[in-house]
Amino acid sequence: MVDSEKSSIDEPIPFDFEKIFNSLSPRILISEAPASNLLMGRFTMQSVFPAPRERLWRVLKLHVEDDQIGRIHPNFLFQRQVSREGNRWLLERKIRLLGRNYTTTWAVEMTPPETYRWEIVASDGLLVPGSYVENKYTDAEDGGTKVSTTVQMTLKGVPGFLQNWMIKRNLSRGDDEDLEYLKKMQT
Questions:
Q1: φ, ψ (nearest 5 deg) of residue 32
Q2: CA angle 99, 101, 107 (to 5 degrees)
Q3: Looking at residues 77-83, what average pLDDT do you find?
Q4: Would you say the pTM of this structure is higher than 0.85?
Q5: Following CA atoms 187, 91, 125, 21 in sequence, which dihedral angle do they give, to the nearest 10 degrees?
Q6: Chain centroid, CA 26 distance in Å
Q7: In what order do the strands lie in the sheet with 115-123?
Q8: Which CATH code for domain 29-186?
Q9: Where are the domains of the chain?
Q10: What percent of the chain is modeled with pLDDT above 70?
């Protein structure tokens, strides 16, 4: 087929994953830096979580409680605290991702009310060790919490072009679950 005979089938279909992702998240996206390497799932984003920092931290602190994490995030099937040193926890977690159960070890570091960071230390599944998410929190003008997120994550066995979308989808789900749990805490 010559160039003049190309059909519209050859043209890429514009599809805005960011718009779809952001419309599903309880956070309101302010800005996002483009991925520097799609194969590694690296990106940053700025967003606003619709609750004040002190209320958000009530939920975040429960993430290291072995008997609470599954109530907040149903895909976390089991958690056991391996160790704790100051504001750093080492947690063994069994999680369900894409229909399969995986055992993972996470290092979680909290510095309320400014920073929450988690890193995968070991995994028998999709999450590659060394992958991490770091959130920095400040007060937003509207009474919510401004969240600056840095993500560097690799998903084993997932094509590079899908990695950022899948990571953002799961982070969005986590935000939804945090917000729902926060609402339950109020009642």
A1: -150, 140
A2: 125
A3: 98
A4: no
A5: 40
A6: 12
A7: 28-33, 42-49, 145-152, 132-139, 115-123, 100-111, 88-97, 76-85
A8: 3.30.530.20
A9: 29-186
A10: 78
* Sole residue written with tokens 């602190």: 61
Range from 20-34, 107-121, 168-182 carrying the lowest mean pLDDT: 20-34
DSSP state letters, the chain: --GGG--GGGSPPP--HHHHHHHHSSSEEEEEEPPS-GGGTEEEEEEEESS-HHHHHHHHHHTT-TTTHHHH-TTEEEEEEEEEETTEEEEEEEEEETTEEEEEEEEEEEETTTEEEEEEEEESSSBPTT-EEEEEEEE-TTSSEEEEEEEE--BTTS-HHHHHHHHHHHHHHHHHHHHHHHHHHH-
Quote the tokens at residue 110. 């909290």
